[in-house]
Design brief:
Layout (H helix, E strand, L loop, with lengths): L1 H113 L2 H18 L8 E3 L3 E2 L5 E2 L3 E5 L3 E7 L4 H5 L7 H25 L12 E4 L3 H10 L3 H7 L2 E4 L1 H79 L23 H8 L11 H9 L18
Parallel strand pairs: 5-6, 6-7
Antiparallel strand pairs: 1-4, 2-3, 4-5
Helix pairs in contact: 2-7, 4-5, 7-8
Length: about 400
């Protein structure tokens, strides 16, 4: 009985405890739901505020988005152009590489050709002819090429060019192109001392050409030629390299009557020659013009004298005509009018009038001098030179003071 009572009491107590626990759990759960509701409400408010802010930000960033779109499009265009340009540049570089390779082969071929003396000589002659033509000189007119002459040593000489100077004079020009050592000295991987040695060898070769030209005595093969020969070096670089390696080369060449010139110096020299020809032509024309002027002046004087004599003859003819008219009026027509008065004839005689206009008198001084030169009286020559000789007592009969007709007799 007590056991059953204890069980009942336990059941009651368990039910009470369960009810209390359930109530407590409901309270706690309600509080949690309330808190969660409040949190959700706040989250909704925050989300609404954030959504409003995002809309404003999106509206503010809309122009920037458009600008970024345009920039992206421009970047795409630039990238496409860059790709095309890189492709074109690569093609151009390939062409440049091919051209450089071909130029290198041609340069090597040219350098190999210039190592031959005949090719160097022909190249030097071609360069010399170009400089002559640029200076305005004409072949076979102002200069001759490969002229054969005999020097004073009875040796056949043949300079490259003989330039004609005014007054039947000549200037000898010979081309020399020592290039073997000079071309070797232009190598890239050449040591400094080896390059210096090659340049000295180049200067020595040019020195040898100078001695050879001096020994030929080109100027002795021409009657009127300066006692020198112009040695033309076709390249300024070759000449300057030789002079830098041997500074005494120029002075030694001038001592041997050989003038070393490059294209620039030869151009200046030939321009001077061309200018000399122009001045010579102007001088000849001036002489001819002076002779023609003097002849014209003399002929004008002769014409003036003839004109003066013709004027005098016309004046005398007018005077004779007037005298004839006077005699006709006073001696003949008077008697003839008597016949008209006696009615022997019906028509009256015409009246003969004297000529009142005479020939125009000469007024030009030149014409008057020419016209009166024959009638001028001789006058005494009172020049200072004549008086000085007279005072010194060395006056001859021909040099004595004399009348010239030009001095005044006052």
């Amino acid at each position: 009985m007590e056991l059953v009572l204890a069980l009942l009491v336990g059941l009651v107590l368990g039910a009470a405890v369960a009810v209390a626990v359930c109530r407590q759990l409901g309270v706690v759960r309600g509080a949690g739901v309330t808190a969660e509701r409040d949190l959700l409400r706040e989250r909704v408010v925050d989300l609404e505020a954030a959504l409003s802010d995002d809309a404003q930000t999106a509206a503010a960033l809309a122009p920037l988005r458009d600008a970024l779109g345009r920039v992206e499009q421009q970047v795409g265009t630039l990238e496409r152009d860059r790709t095309h340009q890189y492709a074109a540049l690569e093609q151009t570089m390939a062409q440049v590489h091919a051209s450089t390779t071909a130029l290198g082969r041609q340069t090597q071929s040219l350098a190999g050709s210039l190592n031959a003396s005949t090719v160097r000589g022909a190249w030097g002659e071609v360069q010399l002819r170009r400089v002559l033509e640029h200076a305005g000189l004409l072949a076979r007119c102002d200069f001759d090429e490969q002229v054969h002459r005999v020097s004073r040593h009875d040796r056949q000489v043949r300079p490259d060019v003989v330039v004609r100077l005014p007054g039947q004079k000549f200037l000898v020009v010979d081309s020399k192109a020592p290039m073997v050592a000079f071309l070797k000295a232009q190598a890239d991987d050449l040591p400094g001392d080896e390059r210096t040695r090659l340049l000295r060898e180049h200067a020595s070769h040019l020195q040898g050409h100078v001695r050879a030209l001096a020994a030929k005595d080109y100027w002795s093969a021409f009657e009127s030629s300066p006692e020198m020969v112009v040695c033309f070096v076709p390249s300024e670089a070759m000449l300057s390299a030789a002079l830098a390696a041997d500074p005494s080369l120029h002075e030694d060449a001038m001592a041997r009557r050989v003038v070393l010139v490059g294209p620039g110096t030869l151009m200046a020299l030939l321009r001077t020659v061309a200018f000399t020809w122009q001045q010579d032509a102007l001088t000849a024309n001036a002489r001819e013009l002076m002779a023609v002027g003097r002849e014209l002046y003399a002929r004008l004087g002769t014409l003036g004298s003839h004109t003066a004599r013709m004027g005098g003859a016309l004046q005398r003819s007018v005077e004779a005509y007037n005298q004839m008219v006077g005699a006709l009026e006073s001696r003949v027509l008077v008697t003839a009018r008597r016949m008209h008065e006696l009615e022997v004839v019906e028509d009256e005689l015409p009246v003969a009038r004297p000529v009142e206009t005479g020939p125009r008198v000469l007024t030009a001084v030149e014409l008057l001098e020419a016209a009166t030169a024959q009638d001028a009286r001789p006058q005494l020559d009172l020049s200072a030179e004549s008086l000085g000789r007279a005072a010194a007592g060395t006056v001859s009969d021909d040099a004595a003071p004399r009348w010239t007709g030009r001095e005044s007799t006052a």
